[in-house]
Amino acid sequence: MSKAILKYQSDPKIYDIQSDSNPHHEVVDGLSVSEHSCINEKYKHISPALGDYFLTIETGVDDTSELQSKHFVIQQFISELDRSWMYTCGHPLVKKVLTFTGPYIDFPDGNINGWVSNFRDAEKELKRGKAHIVGSFINYSHSVISYWPLQKALSIRKSFLSALEPVTALVDLHFFAHKVEDSYSSFIFLAKAMELVQSMLPGKTNDKKEKNLPDEFRTRIQTSLHHIMGLANTRYEIRHIVKEKQNCTLHQKLNNSEINAYKHDADLFIRYVVCEKLAIPLIIPERR
Predict the structure, then answer these.
(1) Alpha carbon 271 to chain centroid distance?
(2) Alpha helices, H only, 203-245
(3) pLDDT at residue 243 above 60?
(4) Is the dihedral of CA 47, 51, 52, 54 positive or negative?
(5) Residue 149 exposed, middle or buried by CB count within 10 Å (0-12, 13-18, 19+)
C-alpha cells in the first residue's frame, strides 16, 4: 500500500534572527514541526540579515480517510500555534492586523469590494498627453528576534492548552483583536478582553490594580487602567454608543490619540495578564 507525506508550509515572515543556536525541530502529537530561514536579497536595502522565516509541518498518511482527518488535526494545531505566537513574537504567526495609528491619507485605486469600475481607464484618459510618473512601493513589516521562536511557541502552546477557561477566553479575545480586518471589531474584542483583565488583576479599584503592577510595566503604558476602561464605555466605537437615552444623544468618536492609546495600553495590559497566568516571559513588541 502506498504511503504519502502530507506537508504544510507557512507563508514567510520577514525576520532577522540574531541567534547562534540551531533552528528547532520537534515531533508533536505525531506531527513533525520545524522552522527555517533563508536570507532574501530583496530585503538588503533594509538590512542584509533579513530573511524569509517559515514553518513546516509534516506527517505520514496511509489512505484518503487519514489524509482528511490529519488535515483537521493540523488545522487545529496551526490555530493553537498562531495564538502562542502572540506571546512569542508579539503578533500572530499568520497575520498581523492590529494597527496602532489613526486615520491616514489614502490614494484610491478604484477598487470597491463587490463592484467593478473603470477607475484606472478613466485615470489613464485624464492623464493622456500629460507628463506624469507612474510608480509603486512595497511596505515590508519585519521583526528582529534574538532567538529561534518555534521552541518557545510550542512551550507556550502547552501552557495555553492546560489553562483555565477565563485565561483561554482572554487569549482568544486578544488574538481576534489582532486578526480582524476592521477597527470597530478590534475595539470590541479589546474591550471584552479588558473586562476580563480588570477582574483578574488584584485590588479593589483600578488605581490599586495598576499600582500593584511592576514599575517596568507601568512606565510603558501611555495613560492608565482607569482611563482605558473609561474609553471603552464612553466612546461611539467601543462598548456603548448611546450617551443619553432620553434624547438619543450618542457618545463622541475616538480621536487619533485615543485610538493609539487605547490599542497600545489595552494590548499591553492583556499581554501582562496572559503571561502572568501562563507563567511565561512577557514579550512586549516595539511599535514603529
Answers:
(1) 12
(2) 206-211, 215-218, 225-234
(3) yes
(4) negative
(5) buried
